[in-house]
Write a structure and sequence with these properties.
With 380 residues, this protein is an alpha/beta fold. The protein has six helices and 17 strands. The relative contact order is 0.17. About 11% of the residues have low confidence.
Length: 380
């Protein structure tokens, strides 16, 4: 079964400028991703154009948990992702491939996630420490950067904004049957800036040539990918080339079209992160917490989360607006969910879980604050 009509297919290359007004219509503060990258004791290693990393690095897309299965540095894949005022051209692209821990039961569920960062040769470096340490290959480095440094150069860093889109690609098994699969792709236009000396060292290490991105076997079930196809007289796709190594086709999309506005989201904050060192809270770590009489009680509101923001369903619409305006609650994954079909008047299980989870998190957050305050008070 080929990918349905009217959705993103393949890896999307944008054509045309992106204006500030274009971003306004697709802007969402936070992406539906949560990253969990463990610390490293030694720098990672580069084998060919692939970086060897631990599968313990994970990410979660909505409720789909995924594990890192591959990192490649390849020739630029996502061209045209230039934010307003940016004219830099990437020399390469770093792609982190994650595979869903559970096999998807339908096309509405993703088989994996791609995090894509363009690599620039630049006069000033940024988000480069992870790559720089690979090139230096010095095991005596006091502090080793993890994958998290690609997205956060510091705790306050919020520069890694991103575009997100859902896309569909096809595979063909040994019996010649075609299967369609869904991916969530996150592209970070600011990417990684390497100084000329670091970039040239990296380019030399990969053999003075950038390879084409190959979808890892875990994301395609070991099947070959459809690399090229034609359309027959009946309007059906016919594969003309399949690729056992996992190369998939690119699809151009104009930024001036409704498809771009409906199928893309722009996230103004980096992905949420889980720190491996934040699982335990000690009294020492709470030493600068406010005193009991400095806490402020606020009324519990089912329409707001524990940060005071309005609860949003998966397409970014505020629950409050839906109730006030009598709008139907969408059942899909939002405007970036191009493969999930049109909106329904019924609330999906995913939306119920997401809203319930946010409300419960608010209640648990309040309970946690009360518990911490009581512990501090009793221990004095």
């Amino acid at each position: 079964m080929f990918c349905p009509v009217g959705v993103n297919t393949g890896l999307i290359q944008l054509v045309g400028p992106i204006a500030s007004t274009d971003l306004t219509g697709i802007t969402v503060p936070r992406s539906p991703l949560t990253i969990n990258f463990g610390p490293r004791s030694t720098p990672a290693s580069l084998l060919g154009n692939r970086i060897e990393e631990s599968s313990q690095n994970t990410c979660t897309y909505h409720t789909t948990k995924c594990s890192l299965v591959d990192i490649q540095i390849v020739k630029p894949v996502h061209t045209g992702y230039n934010l307003p005022g940016n004219t830099d051209t990437p020399q390469a692209e770093l792609i982190l491939s994650f595979s869903a821990n559970s096999a998807p039961s339908s096309l509405s569920q993703v088989s994996g996630v791609l995090l894509c960062l363009p690599v620039y040769e630049s006069s000033s470096a940024s988000h480069d420490v992870y790559i720089d340490q690979i090139i230096q290959n010095d095991p005596s480095v006091a502090t080793v950067a993890s994958l998290q440094s690609l997205f956060y150069s510091s705790d306050q860093d919020s520069s890694q904004t991103s575009f997100g889109y859902r896309t569909c690609f096809e595979t063909q098994d040994e019996q010649g049957n075609v299967h369609s699969n869904s991916l969530f792709v996150n592209v970070y236009p600011h990417g990684i800036h390497l100084t000329s000396s670091v970039y040239q060292s990296l380019f030399s290490m990969v053999g003075q040539s950038w390879s084409t991105y190959e979808l890892p076997p875990a994301l395609r079930g070991g099947d070959a990918t459809v690399r090229n196809y034609t359309i027959d007289d009946d309007g059906n796709k016919v594969p003309t080339q399949i690729d056992p190594s996992g190369v998939i086709y690119f699809t151009p999309l104009s930024t001036c079209t409704e498809e771009f506005k409906n199928r893309f989201e722009y996230f103004t904050l980096p992905p949420k992160r889980i720190s491996s060192s934040s699982s335990k809270i000690s009294k020492a770590a709470l030493g600068t917490c406010p005193t009991v009489n400095q806490y402020k009680c606020v009324p519990f509101d089912q329409l707001r989360d524990n940060q005071g923001g309005y609860v949003q369903v998966s397409d970014g619409t505020c629950l409050n607006d839906i109730i006030q305006q009598g709008k139907p609650i969408p059942s899909g994954q939002g405007s970036g969910d191009s493969s999930s079909g049109s909106a329904s008047s019924e609330m999906s299980v995913a939306d119920i879980e997401e809203i319930a989870g946010t409300v419960i998190a608010g209640a648990l957050g309040l309970v946690a604050i009360i518990w911490i305050v009581s512990k501090l008070t009793n221990s004095e």
